[in-house]
Amino acid sequence: MKMLKLTLCHLYPELLNLYGDSGNVLTLIRRCQWRGIYVDVINCGVGSAADFENVDIFFMGGGADSNLGLVSNDMNNIKPQLELAVEQGKVLLAICGGYQLLGKYYRKKDTVLGLGLLDFYTEATDKNFSGNIVVDTGDYHLIGFENHKGRTYLNGLSPLGQVISGFGNNGKDKTEGVRYKNVIGTYLHGPLLPKNPKLCDEIIKIALKNKYGIEDLQELDDSLEIKARQHTLKLINSKFVSFA
Known about the structure:
By secondary structure, the chain is of the alpha/beta class. 28% of the residues lie in helices and 30% in strands. It is globular and about 50 Å long.
């Protein structure tokens, strides 16, 4: 039997890694390993050459405002290759600051230009949106932790989901994150994927289908993950426990 292998590119891990966001990479690796799928992780940092032809999954974590400018200055070097990968339907998961950089700009006192891969923008305020958050994607519920001053406006793009509890993109329109083709942008830290195995498996399924045409994914025993989700949901509001 042919060994299945996926390649994951971790973008700017030295600058974008708030709130344990690298745990998303570890979770993708582990849930693949449990299924006999090998994951090769390559890091793409400042000044790295961009060779994304064989990359199946891209990941960008969150970062401090001071680091966003450093990343933004370098990202133009990889924009053409990343834009091509996105249009080819490859998976890109971006968290908080990484999410903001996919848009046109992030404006605080100064303006940090984003990649402009997607037509949205972010304006910063002095007030933090902080706390646990529950989001309905239509297929399942996501839980996580948000902590951001940015207010993101999607300009008609599809959100990742609708906020059930928490703030989301801007605290006004009840949207959270963005979904374009197989690009997933979100403010959910935590890290995100250990708390949301269904989303993690969706990412793996997309990557396997893209590369091998495989649509079936072996089920795993997620009883511990479900218990952890129940605990978190109960802390937020006991009426949300059924979302686990």
